[in-house]
Amino acid sequence: MRRVLIALFFLIVCGVQTGAQTSPPPSAIAATKTQQDAKPAYLDTSLPIDQRVNDLVSRMTLEEKVSQMQDNAPAIQRLGVPAYNWWNEALHGVARAGHATVFPQAIGLAATWDTDLMHRVADVISTEARAKYNDALAHGNTARYFGLTFWSPNINIFRDPRWGRGQETYGEDSFLTARMGVAFVTGLQGDDPRYLKTVSTPKHYAVHSGPEPSRHAFDVPVSLHDLADTYTPAFRATIVEAHADSVMCAYNSVLGEPACANEMLFGKLRRDWGFNGYVVSDCGAVSDIYQFHSFAPDVRHAAADAVKAGTDLSCGSEYRALTAAVNDQLVSEAEIDAAVKRLFTARFRLGMFDPPEMTPWSKLTLADNDTPEHRALGLQVARESIVLLKNEHGTLPFGPSVKTIAVVGPNADSVNVLLGNYNGTPSHYTTLLEGIRRRFSGAKILYAMGSPVTEMDTVPVSGSALRIGGLGSWPGLSAEFFNNPTLSGESVFRRVDPQVDFDWDGGPPAPGIRGTNFSVRWSGELVAQVEGDYVLGGSADDGFRLFLEGERIVDDWSNHGERIRTTTVHLIAGHSYQIAFEYYQAEGGSAARLIWSPPGLAAQAVEFARQADAVVAVVGITPQLEGEEMQTSAPGFSGGDRTSLDLPRPQQEMLKALAATGKPLVVVLTGGSALAVNWSQEHAAAILDVWYPGEEGGTALAEVLAGDYNPAGRLPVTFYTGVSQLPPFEDYSMANRTYRYFAGTPLYPFGFGLSYSNFGYSNARVNREEISADGAVNVSVDVKNAGKIAGDEVVQLYISHPGVLGAPIQALEGFTHIHLAPGEQKSVSFTLRDRQLSVVDEAGKTRIVPGTVDVWIGGGQPVARSGQTPPPGVKIQFRITGESILPD
Q1: Model's pTM, two decimal places?
Q2: What's the CA gap between 196 and 149, in Å, rounded?
Q3: Could you report the per-residue pLDDT of 348-400, keeping only the tens digit for each?
């Protein structure tokens, strides 16, 4: 009976391997193993995990151990160890693994200032991850993006709004980042006492925030003060409090040593913070050690240096050199063993070597993925992430007198501005335009693109210009997906896509379609609203071709990275043209976009504005302009980063033309960073920031415009008036950076956000006016909704240490998200102790110092934005006596 159970266990665990990792039938492996050893210790679930791991690793050869230290780890057939791919993404939903619930981008999650909500989001993500993993295991799928080890969250500090990857973070503040990071990590990993639901990997450790073009080679000569005060507290919190089981080390060097071979950083991690999990390199970072940092002479030395420092897993193939490095005595086999044991400890804690019925999530199926309840949560998060930046004369919410709305802007009908980067593929989504159309179904909605995103841009062809066939037919194009690159045979999956605007990044594009060697045909009709000459074409990675009225007008049917090919065609307004866009993907990335640049965009937008009672202009930046190591050349953008904080010129000119009509102008901003919308602040009637709001962003925006939802989002970053207020991008000193050290007047401060309600603060109090260095103080305040409608308030607590060297101007040390009915009052309390009361000295030591502590509790910082009064709030003081040094 025992042999049967062991055979069944290996059948489930090993699955059927695919590709180069094909294994013998798992039952045969189990039978062979059973003959050799009736009950190997590593299969005995009654034993402690460390004993089981030690037993398994002791049975491996050096070559087998080294093979497990690479992200694409092959099966070890003789031991029944299945293949495993460590690379998985879950920044704001399970990414690149087919349909999943897509929440707002991380910066939007941070704008909720709601840790409970963040925990719920991460729990849903891990549920969908387990469902996908279980299905993949049942089908022998060990491909990338279907595992349980997730390289999220990104908790780097968004020190400069020019960084293109700042959208992936929780903003500029170490305390907010730590609290949101802890909530996310605990939600991903679960609370089971025996098993991890998934593994969470905070990244990129450490001191990493651009510039993107030089990220592989630059060194950060960070001060010990800034390192301890700004750059590492969130990592410490996710390790010490949330017990993250993994960490990803960064590309750059810190104080002269590459992050993935940095003994000082690893000393903090393992010695000071007690981290016992595994460290994975960012992809290719081990190669950077010798290729760009010149820290090692070759790959053998680089791999050895990384392992000796503490990097257990390489994203890449560099660790193939470790066998030779051991033979050359550059690294010991004992050091290899330590790394491999940490990796297998994670796999055992995930339940990968136990009977499935022992893990709490083994019965989850794809029916538990992308559920209505999960999508409803996505909508709730999108609502809470929206920040109201201006609302002059109560322009919002729209009243019954608004019967015609002009919706304009290049991002109004874009799917990509919903998704951001490192995103999944939603099965349902609502663009900002579609959300307004649905909610204001009784009003007349006039839509015009108005401008391209930048002066160099084409844009995705809007769904409003596409239909599947015939007057009154569904908007969009019919899509046929094939599991071959030649559009041959019967299609495997069909659907209607509102736009052709996709970046699957190597993930499956549709149910039943693999992530490589597939093809798609989109077909239907193109109907232009304005007559004129159009630039029409496509952008794809790999080949594509475009047909109009049966004629092939663009042909780029070859393997290549993403690139654009266009032609010019003359289109008659209102005439339907038969259109087909064909695409194939071979290997690597996968992206397909049907694009154009229509004529007369601004004129049409202005004409619609004149006819409307109100104008909603959706402007900003897109994931095609800001992101990871990108090839961008538009003015204001470079390599994925930004050189300007201004709106791109065509959009700014469009806004001015719309405002000249005299109609109320509501500006809706998209993007993952701060925008210097100085002109809009002066001239627009209202401004909303929706970030990259996820699959239900359009619904959430429309609810805010209609007053169905009272906005409560708060900025997780400072909005500066322009680049002139910033130090050089390459300078990592925190002097004059972020709200904590910025001495100027921002356009909108960190923590800022308006509401349709008015909140008042009173009766601030402390439970003691003097505390010792090891004591705690309780600070309370009464908060009242003085408005006429219910709303959420984000109560924020900031402290300052007057006259203390090294202390920030002010620092967030507490926040909570509360709901108040009209006229309702609640008492809110915060307990401050330990690190919330500390400052960091020049030597990087965290201290409690004697003296007066100033406390502000309010709806934002106790500072005025440009031309405005501070938010409501109250001040109070207490004193600290004595002094102490806190552990590193």
Answers
A1: 0.90
A2: 10
A3: 999 999 999 999 999 999 999 999 999 999 999 999 999 999 999 999 999 99
Q: Which residues pair with 769 in a beta bridge?
A: none
Distance (Å, whole) CA 8 – CA 333: 34
Q: Is the sign of the CA dihedral 348, 350, 353, 355 positive or negative?
A: positive
Q: Over the stretch 492-505, which tens digit does the pLDDT of each residue have?
A: 999 999 899 888 87
Average pLDDT over residues 708-733: 98
Owner of token pair 């997906």: 481
User: Tokens 């050089």 label which residue?
Assistant: 728
pLDDT of residue 9: 36
Q: Work out the angle at residue 560's Cα, subtended by the Cα atoms of residues 555 and 566, and round it to the nearest 5 degrees.
A: 35
Across the range 291-300, mean pLDDT stands at 98
CA distance 612 to 443: 10
Hey, what amino acid is at 82?
P
Q: What is the DSSP string of 292-359?
A: TS--SSSHHHHHHHHHHHT--BBSSSGGGGHHHHHHTTSS-HHHHHHHHHHHHHHHHHTTTTS-GGGS
- Express each pLDDT in 513-551 by its tens digit: 988 899 999 999 999 988 999 989 998 988 999 999 999
Q: Known catalytic residue: 160?
A: no
Measured CA to CA, the distance from residue 349 to residue 194 in angstroms comes to: 7
pLDDT at 435: 98
Amino acid identity, residue 404?
T
Report yes or no: 841 and 806 within 8 Å, Cβ to Cβ. yes
Judge contact between 311 and 331, C-beta under 8 A. no
Is there a catalytic annotation at residue 703? no
Is the pLDDT at 820 greater than 80? The verdict is yes
844 CB-near residues (< 8 Å, 6+ apart): 223, 224, 225, 227, 228, 888
Rounded distance between C-alpha atoms, residue 842 and residue 835, angstroms: 16
- Residues with Cβ within 8 Å of residue 490, at least 6 apart in sequence: none
Q: Which of 128, 282, 541, 813 is catalytic?
A: 282
Please say whether the beta carbons of 709 and 444 come within 8 A.
Answer: no
Identify whether the C-beta of residue 260 lies closer than 8 Å to the C-beta of residue 318: no
**AA letter at 887:** P
Number of CB atoms found within 10 A of residue 44's CB: 12
Q: Report the C-alpha gap between 577 and 461 in whole angstroms.
A: 14
- Which of 497, 626, 793, 813 is an active site residue? 626
